Amino acid sequence: MDFELSEEQRAVEKMVRDWAAREVAPKIHDLDREHRFERSFLKGMADLQLLGICIPEEYGGAGMDYVSLGLASEELEYVDTHLRVIMSVHVGLNCMSLWCWGTEAQKKKYLVPQAKGEKIATYGLTEPNAGSDAVGIQTTAVKKGDRYVLNGEKIWISLADVADHFLVIAWTDQEKKKNRDHSGLSAFIVERTFKGFSSYTMKEKWGILAGNTGGFSLQDVEVPAENRVGAEGEGFKVAMFALENGRYTVASGATGLIRACLDASVTYAKSRKTFGVSIGEHQLVKEMIAEMVSDYDAARLLWLRAGWLKNEGRRNTRETSLAKWHATESAFEAAHLAIQVFGSYGYSGEYGIERYFRNARAPIIYEGTTQIHKMMQAEHALGLRALNGRGGDVSPLCSWAPALSPVHARG
């Protein structure tokens, strides 16, 4: 086992860290308070090739590996969660799905401009009455000649009011929809400019306030048949594949939030004095900092293992699930502890610690709630669900990660 990062990986880590500290950190307090999404950050990320970081150069990307994607996600969330969210939905959920499931024509038309950052993309699965229960969605896609007519509503969509392209999951087989048979789902590329498409921004949410979150409506939206991603009936596979890559960025990103809480707490514990000594000399403050140290190292090792498996082209469903579960729960706990270290100042928001706390809550829910990941891990341990190896799943929650360089196959 070699835990050393390559020179290229270290360069990515430093590049993203420096950019985020220089361009985002000075503005993030006000952006968060104003609930304002700063579009110039997208250009900055595009200039750094982050919006196509692990997409091959032939499709407009930087051609880097999955560990580099994880490092970028960790550094972005260290400054603010909304930056990592961009990576999750644009790269993890959309671009990587098109790379691995899209036709050559789809890659040239959609993936290339997305990887270059000329177009922004996101993902549409969740609906008002369907989240973890993916087959509970109601959106339909009815084939009419050389087109599909889509109707439905998606909600809790990151970049809903920003993205140009949407990877949308819908039912193409209405009988299978009645029977909740996931093989009746299909995936489609929808453009914002398609007639009948409309989106909105959610005004009331608790965290990730500098990010754009909303929903979109599909009212008789005509989508060309060539915009279907994968074959009819493969939409669930595409959706689960996308979610696994999203989970990987969530895991690595949440690790950055743990580190942000740790660094802030250490700095404050050295400078703040009570009872004649710095609070870092008090035993119970040391204990809180020690918890953050332990959780950070464990979270980082878990996502690095998942990233290594992805680089090798090996199944990583269990490992990515575990990394996401541990990192998001640990980030929330780290933010809780950091507020305690800062005391009233942590609660007041003067130091930004309360922003960490608010931002840390949502990732525990999206890309599979903690309860979903606990179920997956337990069922694997009990032999009820196979999540390792290159195949053999007894459930439809399967996916496949292409090696870099990839040999394209579908799982």
Q: Mind explaining what this structure looks like?
A:
The radius of gyration is 21 Å and the shape is globular. The longest helix has about 35 residues, at about 235-270. It has a 4-stranded mixed sheet with strand order 1-4-5-8. It is α+β, with helices and mostly antiparallel strands and about 400 residues long. Mean pLDDT is about 95; it is low at about 390-400 and about 405-410. The chain is built from 12 helices and 10 strands. It is about 50% helix and about 15% strand. It has 3 domains: about 5-120, Butyryl-Coa Dehydrogenase, subunit A, domain 1 (Orthogonal Bundle); about 120-235, Butyryl-CoA Dehydrogenase, subunit A, domain 2 (Beta Barrel), CATH 2.40.110.10; about 235-380, Butyryl-CoA Dehydrogenase, subunit A, domain 3, CATH 1.20.140.10.
Query: In order across it, which strands form the biggest sheet?
Result: 1-4-5-8
CATH class of the largest domain: Mainly Alpha
CATH fold node name of the largest domain: Butyryl-CoA Dehydrogenase, subunit A, domain 3
In quaternary terms, these chains amount to: single chain
What is the total number of structural domains? 3
Order of helices and strands: HHHHHEEEEHEEEEHEEHHHHH
Radius of gyration based on Cα positions: 21 Å
- What distance lies between the first and last C-alpha atoms, to the nearest angstrom? 27 Å
Question: Number of DSSP helices?
Answer: 12
- Principal-axes geometry comes out as globular
Q: Report the β-strand fraction as a percent range.
A: 5-15%
Mean pLDDT metric: 93
